[in-house]
């Protein structure tokens, strides 16, 4: 069939967005990999799928697939693009949109055409909720890798994140440590790996090696996880500006039990159709 899609991005984290309310289609893992393929398909970090709600308290079901075909529980930059897409396509006229993801319910608040605020829900720290193989919850963990001991933070934003603090993010060993930690046996569901340079109490630089997609130009849940880790360690406070290779996000977190609120841009790149 000929599948209609919209290519979008949020701070350079790019998406193929597909409306499966107006189009009837079942996307297989190989279809996702084709859509995401930058040579043989459209090309993106994640494929986002709009589905009808599965329960009355939400407006849509929001499904997220990484470029390697795996399904993810949450995607922050994607959530903002999702909000813009469902309004542009007149699937809703609401400015506050509640969606169900595999990582829980999140609320998308459309400020204007470009900026969307997302209530990402509260982070989770218990090792079994991340999931991380650790006996007890700790402020940071030590992971053994190739004879080295790495200190990192670990938490769930609906999806799993590990965060390493580095002196200079431009020099961070993202290409080697990213894939090695993504598939480290201590993280049984694999993990997204963030490299955070603290600039000041209200500003960080961040690069993220994403599970199932490799290094991306921005990761929304990665930005939330890094700020939560930085606030928990006393390095950051209040509303934090996160500089990523593709743009910047504002992240606010009031502490344990409170939701993380992310604000950032959305952009439509082009529309098209592809035979799958
Ligand atoms: N780009 C995302 C996260 C996408 C999912 C992630 N790779 C995972 O597998 O958990 C974001 O903006 O949060």
From TrEMBL:
InterPro entries: DAP_epimerase_AS (IPR018510), DAP_epimerase_DapF (IPR001653)
Residue positions of the active site: 75, 219
Similarity annotation: Belongs to the diaminopimelate epimerase family.
Pathway linked to the protein: Amino-acid biosynthesis; L-lysine biosynthesis via DAP pathway; DL-2,6-diaminopimelate from LL-2,6-diaminopimelate: step 1/1
Coiled-coil features, chain-numbered ranges: none
Highest taxon above the source species: Bacteria
Catalytic reaction equation(s): (2S,6S)-2,6-diaminopimelate = meso-2,6-diaminopimelate
Binding site for substrate: 13, 46, 66, 76-77, 159, 192, 210-211, 220-221
Native organism taxonomy: Bacteria, Pseudomonadati, Pseudomonadota, Gammaproteobacteria, Cellvibrionales
Name of the molecule in the record: Diaminopimelate epimerase
PANTHER family according to UniProt: DIAMINOPIMELATE EPIMERASE (PTHR31689:SF0), DIAMINOPIMELATE EPIMERASE, CHLOROPLASTIC (PTHR31689)
GO CC annotation: cytosol
Record's subunit section: Homodimer.
Predominant location: cytoplasm
Keywords: Amino-acid biosynthesis, Cytoplasm, Isomerase, Lysine biosynthesis
Record-marked site positions (Important for dimerization): 270
Site (Could be important to modulate the pK values of the two catalytic cysteine residues): 161, 210
Record EC number: 5.1.1.7
Annotated compartments: Cytoplasm
Alphabetical list of HAMAP family matching this protein: DAP_epimerase (MF_00197)
């Amino acid at each position: 069939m000929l599948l209609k899609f919209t290519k979008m991005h949020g701070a350079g984290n790019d998406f193929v967005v597909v409306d499966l309310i107006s189009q009837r289609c079942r996307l297989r893992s190989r279809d996702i990999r084709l859509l995401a393929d930058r040579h043989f398909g459209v090309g993106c970090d994640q494929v986002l799928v709009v589905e009808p709600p599965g329960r009355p308290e939400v407006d849509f079901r929001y499904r997220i697939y990484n470029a390697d075909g795996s399904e993810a529980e949450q995607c922050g930059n994607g959530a903002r693009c999702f909000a813009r897409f469902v309004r542009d396509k007149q699937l809703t006229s609401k400015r506050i949109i509640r969606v169900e993801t595999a990582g829980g319910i999140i609320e998308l608040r459309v400020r204007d055409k470009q900026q969307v605020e997302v209530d990402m829900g509260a982070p989770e720290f218990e090792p079994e909720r991340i999931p991380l193989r650790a006996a007890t919850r700790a402020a940071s963990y030590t992971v053994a890798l190739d004879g080295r001991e790495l200190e990192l933070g670990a938490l769930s934003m609906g999806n799993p994140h590990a965060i390493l603090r580095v002196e200079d993010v431009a020099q961070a060993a993202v290409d080697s440590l990213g894939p090695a930690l993504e598939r480290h046996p201590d993280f049984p569901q694999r993990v997204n790996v963030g490299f955070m340079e603290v600039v000041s109490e209200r500003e960080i630089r961040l690069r993220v090696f994403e599970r199932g997609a490799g290094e991306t130009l921005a990761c929304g849940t990665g930005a939330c996880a890094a700020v939560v880790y930085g606030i928990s360690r006393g390095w950051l406070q209040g509303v934090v500006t996160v500089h990523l290779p593709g743009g910047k996000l504002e992240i606010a977190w009031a502490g344990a039990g409170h939701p993380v609120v992310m604000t950032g841009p959305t952009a439509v790149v082009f529309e098209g159709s592809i035979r799958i």
